[in-house]
Amino acid sequence: MEVRHTHFLLVIHTFFRHYYCIFTPFILKTDKFMNQLLKATIVLILMVISSVELQAQYMNLGGQATKVKTNEHRWFVGGMLGGSFSSYGGSFEIAPIVGYKVTPEFAVGTRLTYIYSSYKSQYSSTRYNLNDYGASLFARYQFYKYFFGQAEYEALSLEMPPRPLEPSRILLNSLFVGGGIIQPLGGRGFATVAILFNLLENEYSNYVYSNPIIRVGFGVGL
């Protein structure tokens, strides 16, 4: 039964790896939130399947299995790549992070963010290419097994479309709170899926974020 169970997990894992592209057209046709939600769900399913598969392989070793003691790596680096698409255009986001584990459960860090947006005006054929950049400070507490809570303050220099008597850039302040799941990937690697809410949402926030915000990130301990 253990052999069949492991084989079944391998089949599912292979299916998602080779046929993920089937879901791409559906992802591109949904709005920004559903786009993020569907991608996060697929990544989360793969994380769970991989974790169960590794655990099954570990158990199959029987009495020959030994638990390897790993050193604690306080510093970690990582980040995320993201994007959104619509009939008017799209955006691309890259956000590297550097963090430090104060304790095994509590970590602090900083995130750098760059967002490139290109879209066509709804009222004319004018196309806008905008560049946004900024940084943030975050604190994350892992309160139960793989679950964590997070608070993050971000200052983002937001480039605005050209308008008469309007500034070309504004400073967008955001305060994100929420939580998520952190999943070890073997060795020093890990993946995170988080749902955050911007408590300082205003009329400019929708240019880059819309509540709730779903983030999928990866990292490695140093």
Task: Explain what the structure shows.
It is built from three helices and eight strands. Strand 2 and strand 3 form a beta hairpin. 23% of the residues lie in helices and 47% in strands. The chain has 222 residues and is an alpha+beta fold. It has two domains: 2-64; 75-221, Porin. The chain has helices at 2-19, 24-29, 32-59; strands at 75-85, 89-101, 106-120, 127-144, 147-159, 169-184, 189-198, 213-221. Helix 1 packs antiparallel against helix 3 (32-59). Strands 1-2-3-4-5-6-7-8 form an eight-stranded antiparallel beta barrel.
The ordered string of helix (H) and strand (E) elements is: HHHEEEEEEEE
Number of strand segments:
8
The radius of gyration computed from the alpha-carbon positions, rounded to a whole number of angstroms, is 20 Å
Please identify, by name, the CATH architecture of the largest domain: Beta Barrel
CATH topology descriptor of the largest domain: Porin
Biggest sheet architecture: 8 strands, antiparallel, barrel
User: What would you call the structural class?
Assistant: alpha+beta
Largest beta sheet: strand ordering: 1-2-3-4-5-6-7-8
Label the overall shape. elongated
Number of helices: 3
Q: Span between N and C termini?
A: 39 Å
**Percent of residues in helical segments?**
10-25%
Mean pLDDT over the full residue set: 76
CATH top level assignment of the largest domain: Mainly Beta
Spans of 5+ residues with little confidence (pLDDT < 50)? 1-30, 48-71
User: Please, how many domains?
Assistant: 2
Strand content: over 45%
